[in-house]
Amino acid sequence: MLKLPITDGELVALLVSTSFAAGLNVYATVATLGLLGHFQMVVLPDALNLITNWWVIAAATVLFAIEFVADKIPAFDLIWNALHTFIRVPVASLIAWGATSHLEPQWQMVATLAGGLIAFAAHGGKTAARAAVTPSPEPVSNMALSMGEDVTAIGLSWAATQHPYAAAGFVVVALVLTLFVMRWVVRAMKRLFSTGPDAAPAA
Question: Where in the sequence is the domain holding 64, given as residue range(s)?
Fold first, then answer.
């Protein structure tokens, strides 16, 4: 369990893990961190004590419940995730900003930008995977993918506070896989919508 003061390495690992988790499901991440902090399973930096408030935890839990349903509806989930680009990334950046409030301003800004970029990568990979799975006529794959994302977000948020280095290692591997998924989806979309001579039917 992380206790203050934490080392620089633990702080970096914490930010990497929670930023990735927020990119997958920001409400689950905030609710999990809030509960862990409220029940003193982790000592969060003072600037993040707001998320341990019951009102914040309750709001995050309700929003998580809404997303739990909305994120499993084929086609609608793409709209939902597109809109959440403007929520997941900024909130991840704010968490990084609060967690590094004790650092010098320039390093706090670096951490904030890094948190936002990691969240954006996770969010982008999630959206790309959905774009590939949604055309499937059966809803099971879409629901299974969504459930996996929910479990990963909650598990990472917990692991970041209990085993930060292991959680960060998982995220590094996940980021590499995310890049491959995004490249594969982009190539598949290009082939699907290609209008070049190769795509034209033979005369």
Answer: 8-191
182 near 126, Cβ under 8 Å?
no
pLDDT, averaged in runs of 10, over the chain (203 residues): 72 94 97 94 87 97 96 87 93 94 92 96 87 72 88 95 94 89 68 54 45
Does 201 map to a domain? no
**Which residues, in sequence order, are CB contacts of 66 under 8 Å at separation 6+?**
none
Question: What total of structural domains would you count in the chain?
Answer: 1
> Which tokens belong to 174?
């996940």
Residues 6+ apart with CB under 8 A from 120: 23, 85, 89
Distance between CA atoms of residues 182 and 188, nearest Å? 10
Q: Left (φ > 0), alpha (ψ -120 to 50) or beta: where does 80 sit?
A: alpha
Asked if residues 151 and 170 have their Cβ atoms less than 8 Å apart, the reply is: no
Q: Is the peptide bond before 5 cis (omega within 30 degrees of 0)?
A: yes
Q: Are 100 and 15 in contact (CB under 8 A)?
A: yes
